[in-house]
Amino acid sequence: MQQKAIYPDLDGRSVFITGGGSGIGAALTRAFARQGSKVAFVDIADADSEALVRSIREEGVRHAPLFLHCDLRDIAALRESVARAQQAHGDITVLLNNAAHDERHAVESVTPEYFDDRIAVNQRHVFFASQAVLPQMQRAGGGAIVNFGSVSWKLRQGGMPAYTMAKASMQGLTRGLARDYGKQNIRVNTLVPGWVMTERQLKLWVTPEAEREIDAGQALAGRVRPENIADMALFLASDAASMCSAQEFVVDGGWT
Ligand SMILES: NC(=O)c1ccc[n+]([C@@H]2O[C@H](COP(=O)([O-])OP(=O)(O)OC[C@H]3O[C@@H](n4cnc5c(N)ncnc54)[C@H](O)[C@@H]3O)[C@@H](O)[C@H]2O)c1
After folding, report:
1. C-alpha of residue 200 to centroid of ligand 1, in Å
2. In the chain, where are the structural domains located?
3. Which of 33, 40, 119, 222 is 20 to 30 A from 159 (CA-CA)?
4. What are the boundaries of the signal sequence (predicted)?
């Protein structure tokens, strides 16, 4: 098992991850399981999620992750999943609001129904997952929420305005919650990934032209991997970040 850093306080912690079955989320699930955390994650990708649980279990971690099928557009189902995670693992003290979907759309083609669906996939559940875990964090004496932003809107990326709008709003929620709950030792931050080489990104968007764009944009050579995002998430969740709240933490190879 390869781990760059070990955070003893994450051992045994009850961690809830949205969209933890594939992409960056899968790296988060694996990284926290390797720290000894009790991870519950929700996703709609059943086959990927089940394969991930098997693969992590085979590593011999102490607590195999708990996969809960949940479409985050359904807030009642999200609340039910949070309750099931709490029953299985105890009060949730780390919430990673990772799930989103960067489906492309042209402005002219967006109907009110499609717009609402993008908001439901990319924004609304972040508020309601936070609302559901906050009483647990208060009871436990503290916690950490990490909301996932994006460099896309900072780089003025077009082609998905409802997505970039939702991603830009993450920091607004982060700062509002950080103020309301900070005195109760609940820290809220935004983790901003750069262009991360997930299987999906590689399959859909990372063309030779895009590779040149990354090389020109990033200060660092190489590529941002899901593991690099997980490394920052571990730090933000752990007591190592005990005086970090209300901020954006960007992992983009020095692009923005
Ligand atoms: N990959 C990148 O380059 C990149 C860049 C900037 C920001 N981000 C952000 O990082 C986070 C993760 O990105 P990713 O690239 O891994 O995304 P992804 O699309 O590869 O994975 C997202 C996960 O969420 C799940 N999911 C999607 N809709 C869902 C729903 N309705 N209910 C439950 N689960 C659902 C998917 O099945 C998947 O497992 C997102 O918040 C994204 O905005 C990613």
Report:
1. 9
2. 11-196+225-251
3. 222
4. none
